Task: structure prediction
Amino acid sequence: MKLIKKGAEGDIYLTKFDNVPAILKTRKTKPYRHPTLDNKIRKQRTIREASILSEAKSIGIRTPLVYQVNTSDCTILMQQIDGVIVRDLKDAKLKSACAEIGKITATLHKNGIVHGDLTTSNFISKNNKIYAIDFGLAQKSIRVEDHAVDLRLYKEILGSAHVKIMQELWNAFLKGYKSVIGTDRFNKILAQLSIIEGRGRYARME
Result:
């Protein structure tokens, strides 16, 4: 088993399942929490992540297959998507991927799923298809505010990871998002996004 990513919430290992490369996600214990509470929270979040991964797949989103869920050690064993992280794509391919991520995000939102960690690092391009990964912070919500927060994170990531072409990528994302979510809902979510961004600017001025 090989450690490939350390995160605040969990670690990702490359392993095998039935002799096929697979990904094992482990949820870390949090020393600052009471052990009983920590175990309960990690178990709940492990179950929720696996459940939302499967639900996303059922509504047509390309996600890794879940092979095993172990609630005793809070791990998820899943399919390895062997492709290129969208963050590492260039030019037209990156722009096209952002449009597709917009469609994926809108499909999730229409079905009451908030990804919670929308970044170009959490999508993989394989054979010109985009796969969504890492639903560790995902939750169920139909609230405009929660959907706007999802968009705000993605916009911020574009502004830091892809600063030179940020506006172009953001426009591509919004075009894809609007094509699936519909004009009325799109306008409500964008209006809420403006309010959230306004709060952030006000806080920085204080």
